[in-house]
Amino acid sequence: MTIIAGPVSVGMILRRIFSFAAFSIFLFLFIQVLATKETKNLSYVFYQEGTLPIIISVPHDGDLQIDNVAERNNTTGSVYFSKAQDTYTKQIALEISENLEKRTGKKPFLVIDLLSRKYMDANRNVSDAYEDSRVKKVYAQYNQNLTSAIEKVGKGNQTGVLVDLHGQSQLPEDLYIITLNGKSMEKSKEESLRQFLQSKGYVVSLSNPEKFEISGIIIDRFGKHRENGIDAFEIEVQKSIRYDKTRREKFVKDFSEALLFFTKTQ
Length: 266
Hints:
The protein has nine helices and seven strands; from the N terminus they run αββαβααββαβααβαα. The chain has 266 residues and is of the alpha/beta class. The chain folds into two domains: 7-42; 44-263, Zn-dependent exopeptidases (Aminopeptidase, 3-Layer(aba) Sandwich), CATH 3.40.630. It has a seven-stranded mixed beta sheet, sandwiched between helices. It starts with 6 loop residues before the first helix and ends with a helix.
């Protein structure tokens, strides 16, 4: 049996002990940094800074939960109350962003609600948007991000556009374009957009059913009729397009082209 002794051997042991301790401290601090970073990045609203004069809002496709917060229960008695998720609208927005970047090398602005509609509806006035005050900050953040995007696109921009992306399954048309009867965007532009999308094979309605008119809070808040607004429209995409991968991919391509046509960005 060999007995390790002497100054050299003791020094080696001490160096090993010190190295292990240093590594343990480094690992602990690294984990703390990661945890802090993750917490800071935790958000219920996704915001993408853009370089195109295009803003896409997605208020109804969130699925994140909040612990110890009760679901909305329509305490105001609104006949238009809903907690339904507009499934695939988030994916459509992200894919449109990717498509536009491939075409132009630039990105649109994106504002996407990640919190479940059970807790908040970003496309409602404050009285109907949430029922637990702890959700107030999420609602405020969503609107602040839209305000910031519009300021960066340029207030009163003649070619900038805000698209509020939704889904529906109750009415037969492929697409509904809502402008609050021409308030949030000029009717001539609305008609031009309809014709472009119809040329791609979609059945498009401008009839603006009351069901959609009542819910158009985002386009009413940020539309062209407001002093610092821009052209804004809500688009309702039929479930048959959203849930069908082939039709959804075609819509992403066609609508991306429509947005570039609309904003005269090629």
